[in-house]
């Protein structure tokens, strides 16, 4: 019997799982928004997400590492996550899932700009072109 090594998860694999999961999240959020207010959808969605996070931590060996600066950034992140979520669910409830989700998905442009300006990340010409093309694609989808 040949034992094959288990494939180690990579950042790209995790990113692909996130992409599929977030696509399904947006689809089911649209369905929920047909009968629920945006605020209720946000609370239920985030509560389930938080419970999954707690369960994941409980299943890990050892204690999670916690730092005061990390917690401060997590709180600020949570504030913006909540504002974005409420805004997104309101937009999704009243608009097309295709347009709303595509426009909201451009959040990565904000992240890329902040990462370059504040963190000093490099943005090669290929990635810059990709961002520009993504913005153009969203403009085309929104018309």
Ordered list of secondary-structure elements with their pairings:
Blueprint: H1 11-33, H2 38-59, H3 68-94, H4 97-104, H5 107-117, H6 125-142
Structure description:
The chain is mostly helical. It has a domain at 11-105. The chain has helices at residues 11-33, 38-59, 68-94, 97-104, 107-117, 125-142. The radius of gyration is 18 Å and the shape is globular. 7% of the residues are buried. The model has no long low-confidence stretch (mean pLDDT 89).
The assigned structural class equals: mainly alpha
Q: What characteristic shape results from the CA principal axes?
A: globular
Give the DSSP E fraction (strand runs of 2 or more residues): under 5%
Rg, please? Answer: 18 Å
Low-confidence regions: none
pLDDT average, as an integer? 89
Share of helix, binned: over 70%
User: Largest sheet, if any?
Assistant: none
Number of helices, counting only DSSP H or I runs of 4 residues or more: 6
Tally of DSSP β-strands:
0
Give the SSE string: HHHHHH
- N-to-C span: 58 Å
How do you describe this structure in short?
This protein has 143 residues and is mostly helical. The chain is built from six helices and no strands. The protein is globular and about 50 Å long.
